[in-house]
Sulfatase-like hydrolase/transferase (Sphaerochaeta associata), 506 residues
Amino acid sequence: MPRQVVFIMTDTTRKDMLGCYGDSRMLTPNLDKLAGQGLRYEQAYCCQPVCGPARSALFTGTFPHSNGVVSNNLPLGDNVKTLGQRLRDNGIQAAYTGKWHLDGGDYFGLGQCPDGWDPDAWYDMHNYLEELSVEERLRSRKSETAFDEDWGAEMTYAHRVSNKAIGYVQEHEGQDFFLAVSYDEPHGPFICPAPFNTMYDGFSFEDNPTFHDSLQSKPMLQRLWSGDDLHKSPEALHAPSKMLSLYLGCNSFVDHEIGRVLDEVYRLAPDALVIFTSDHGDMLGSHRLQAKNAAFYKEITNIPFIVKPGRGHELNRNVVVSHPASHIDVTPTVLDYFGIPIPKLLEGKSMLVQFEDPTVQVNEHVYCEFTRYEVDHDGFGGLQMMRSITDGRFKLTINLMDCDELYDLDSDPHEVVNLIEDPSRREIRNKLHDLLIEHMDRTRDVYRGYQWVARPWRNDRHPNWQNSGLTRQRENEEYESRQWDYDTGLPMESAVRGKKLYDVKK
């Protein structure tokens, strides 16, 4: 039986934009069908709610602070290996078609297939624009084009990405392969043909406490981010709009395009492991915020994650998994599926055992971060250092240059009441804080330091110039020689060890 994985992702799909997550008004029949054949995760999180950084974690198995993509338009480090390279180097074909966003180029990419991936399948947005005339390129960036009768599905990026993916599945029937299919849709400009372009006219999200959040107990960065929305009425924040109608219409359109690919997968690769997710979500007026930025709110970080297990695990159908899950685990999971040892360097775990038995808990805690939104832009708040952790019930966020946040999802599922100063939550708050600092140390977070410890609400733990006092060298020995110990010039015996200081005899 061939070993095959099809990984499908969209850009900016909120969890509640899929019908299978509870809102029957969302017309996503193909992803709903996929969820019915496998596992639907309720507590899956991206590693940073920004396109490039989120993808860097997905396709390297390392956090943005480790691989260098801490902002859009920054490239992966030269010594960072992608999932494609690791698969290729272990004899597995790897193909990627669609939005990449990891080459350090602009929004559309550089149009060049990265090492490790099949160049015949490669098709980023730069390649798409090269196929269009100058006039067509201009039209492809305007939302109004969704209503042009001569701009059918065949003119969209989603349709052409699907064509590439379908061709790959057809050409590699019966072979081992990993195929990533990455759509830009439903990300703006929300171009989708009829009937999708009017399907959600008049739609609005139901009123909920997030639209009433005054942000008074929240970080300043959120109040600045909210702009004029800070003073709007809750009704205005979730009122119907043409933008929302097109956004959701484009979401249903990309579900249709995903269905084209899945139909071929069901026909030619029925035993394949299929994974669907999105890089992040969109606030859409919740907490008076739009788009995404430095926050751990569920609207932008708690992403959809759906799995159809492969190779004889069909009994796990229509199962809801409530354990915390993370994008950081995708690369080690895929390597494990193909029987490839998981390198020490990777910062996640294999979820394969959970695919086979959904009662197994792989993670007790998962982590999220933020450094900067965009290198090219001065706006979006600029530098916003954020590190977050959740155990599935409580969510702690450290905003390094601002006030911090703690939410109890049981009593406050909408994340309105900031409990960071609540003495009754001191024990769980401090426990999560300790675990977050430990995670930053363990993953060699380049931005770690005493400042993350020195929080105004934490009076039982004191900052230290030496922090943990340990040296943590890199272990990438599948591709690099063992690093040398600074104190001896010899290969290190242990990657994590006490840091020696110069011993100068007087």
Q: What stands out?
A: The chain is about 25% helix and 15% strand.
